Every structure is written in C-alpha cells, then in structure tokens.
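[retry 2/3] Small ribosomal subunit protein uS15m: previous attempt timed out, resubmitting with same input.
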Amino acid sequence: MLASSAPEVVKRLCSLNFASGEDKKIHRKELMRERILKLFGPEAHREMLVAMLTVDIRNMIPHVIELRKDKHAKSQLIEKIQGRKKLLKFLRKEDYQRFMWLLKELQIRYVLPPDYYGQITKKFKHKERVWKKANDLRLKKIAEYRQKLENEWEEFKNYKEEALKQIEQDIARFQLDREMFEKGLQRKREGKIYPRIYTWEERQELAKEGKVF
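[retry 2/3] Small ribosomal subunit protein uS15m: success.
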C-alpha cells in the first residue's frame, strides 16, 4: 500500500536502477535461490552452491576487466571459477541429467579437462631442451654403433669367405679327406657340454632343497 501510494520519484529511487552493487547482487542471489528451489527442490545443496558462485563470478567479471591491476580481485575470481568447476565435476558424475539442466538454466558451459595439463615454466622449457639434446646425442651414438657393427659384419663376411677359400685350397693341396674332416668337426661340436636350462617349477624345487643353481 505504501509503495503503491508513494510518489513516482520515491519509486524510482527505491528501484534497482538506483541500488548499490551489493544490493543488486543480493537481489540476483534471491532470484537465483528461488529459481533453484523451484527446479531442484530444497535438497539441491550442490546446485545452490553452483548458482551462488555463478552470481558472484558474473558480478566480479566487470570489476576485474575494468581494474586489471586489482590482483586480489582477480585471484578471488579464479578461486571461485575453480570451485565451481569442481562442484560441476562432482555433479556430472552423480547425476548427468541434473547437471545438464543446471548448465541450461545458468547458461554456462562446462569444458572437460584434458588428460594432462600443466603450466609451461622456464624450468620445464629448460628440461625439455636438455632432454631433446640428450636424446639426439643418444640417437647419434646408436646410429654410429649400428654403422660400426655393419662394417664389422662386412669385414667378417669377407674374412670368412677368404678363410673358406683357403681351407678349400689346403684340402686340395694336401689331398685331405673332406668327409673325415667334417666328421671330426661334428664330433667336436657334439662333445661340447651346454648348461641345462631349468624350468620355473624345477627352480622352486631346487630352492626348497637348498641347492644353488
């Protein structure tokens, strides 16, 4: 009754257009609280926290954009955004349908975090350069060693061919019996004793008996 009978100037002064920033934020929070209670019920504590944080974030963004040197306000804004992201992550795991409804009502977007993310610092860049240099050096040494082995293999093949040719010449020169020579080599190979390879079960049995193998 008093508000309806008040003059137009008083009505304008009491409206939101002339309210302070804190009063506007309180009014937005009350509207948001009524909306969340109507949609999700009185037990929607996590949804209510997300909604209140969203109101605070939207109220702080113009201030941070206008006063970029206000580091304290910027850190508070980042903290609230990270807190809201954490709550949305839990809500997404619990009830995906309510999570999507809340995003739609608040008109916000949830971006899935990458599998791995980290801040690229000077220390990280230095370690990356050192690792790349060490890896290049390792690959260079491996290539040099592989080339060395290939050269030695070629030398060994040439030496083997020359040795076989020399053996053939000696057999023909001294008129040796090739079959007897090959049988002697075969007996020498067969007479060599190779160590026995035990199975896992045999190793366990030997360990129980206290034998060293």
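[retry 2/3] Small ribosomal subunit protein uS15m: The chain has two domains: 8-106, 122-209.
[retry 2/3] clearing retry counter.
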